[in-house]
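Can't paste images in this forum, so I'm doing it all in text. The chain is below; anyone willing to post the predicted structure tokens underneath?
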Amino acid sequence: MPSSARRAERVYEFEKYRAPSQHEVHDLVRNNPFALIVSNGGGAEGAPTVTHAPVIIERMPPRGDFVGAELLGHIARKNPQWHQLTDGDPVLLVFSGPHGYVSPTTYADDPNVPTWDYAAVHLTAHVTVLDDRGDGMHVVTRTVEELEKLEATPWDMTTSLPTFERIVGGIVSFRFEVIEQRAVFKVSQDKPKDVRDKVAAAARARSCPHGDVAALVERIGGDT
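Text version of the structure:
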């Protein structure tokens, strides 16, 4: 990424909204694998190119955070983004967790302002393009394995592997070697507990349409 993009990424990680633990960061990435793959240029007037795609964890380093981790992803071969990528290019992977609007009606004092509670992880990585059918099969089957772990009753892909073999030429796969991790968990932790309880209750009353942000507010909130 250009230096200006990297500076913007650093500004994004607000000090008071840092991830409470690496465990929370790992769980957000694993449980929200439909990521944005952002690469430099390729769009109109040189704007970044972005694709929504499943990105899964292949290997985590011993140190605990995502720096040094290996992730896998794939996109449709018809998508021109992969033609714009050279091995070693930096890309940004954006994982979005639960989020939701917070109305001033949840606060006891007035006047006040609305806000948005959310959690997100940004991983900067060096990409390797895997344009081989064998690599494609590995990435696709690993993706299915990881996503099926999120299901109550995991699906057995064995009988579908011949179908995978037949259509895998329609995708291009990637390996991502993570070089930087940024995360933000803004979940009303700067509010007193009674207010956080109201924020969580309001989110549940809306049935948390963007994920269970209420659980994050309750789990990660401050001590006051």
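The chain has a mean pLDDT of 90. The beta strands are 34-39, 49-59, 70-76, 90-102, 115-130, 171-186.
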